[in-house]
Amino acid sequence: MMTHEEFESIAALDAIGAATADEGSALTAHLRECLPCRRARAEFAEAATLLARDLEPVVPPRDVRERISSAIAETDEEEARETRISPWWLATAATIFLALWGWREISVRVIREQTHSQEAEIKRLSEENALLNEQNEKLSVLAKPDTRTIALTGQEVAPAASAKVFLEPERRRAFVFFYNLPSNPGDKSYQLWIIRGDQPKPMSAGVFDVTEAGSASITIENLPVATEIKGLAVTLEPRGGVEQPTNTQFIVAGNV
Which of these, 178, 172, 164, lies nearest to 236 by C-alpha position? Predict the structure, then answer.
């Protein structure tokens, strides 16, 4: 059974009248059930009348190129008279075929590039839209009258660092914005801890990295009720975070 690529090769030959009768019959039967090949045949037919100039060279399938070359080499004058096909016509057909193949390959390449470009643009716009929605949500929380604001101050290891916590008690959620934090090494992550009044051990609220400017933000979901939160603190931990702090050198900390 022939592949789609082989049928497309026949379609290119058929568009310039160089396909054999058997090839034409096989192609006609295949086109009844294959929409992509029907489109290819239509494109070749259009290109046959509009042959583009100065096309970049594109190599067609090896078996098709060899078949055309063999036909040119094996056809002598006697066979040409019997079949009424001259070597000159076969050479011309080969040239036109190669041009047709190149024209379609370039068309497909352009379409693929346009598709990839559109997909990249859609992805970029989606990410920007998601970021804007997140920022708008944060701003709406900051404007609520019941939002609580908590300040975290830099400790001995980073006195210039600070953080602002905007706590939304009703939804048990908080947005935390960090400033002037030292850059964390590649094998380390900052980790935010909730120090609870009803439990002896702190609870992780997430890990994060900082930008070159020393800023970062993190959203905390499913907070304990406000009465159970005693304070918040940040430590520098192994990459990805840990279950419990490995040190007591707080970067920023503050009581609730």
Answer: 178
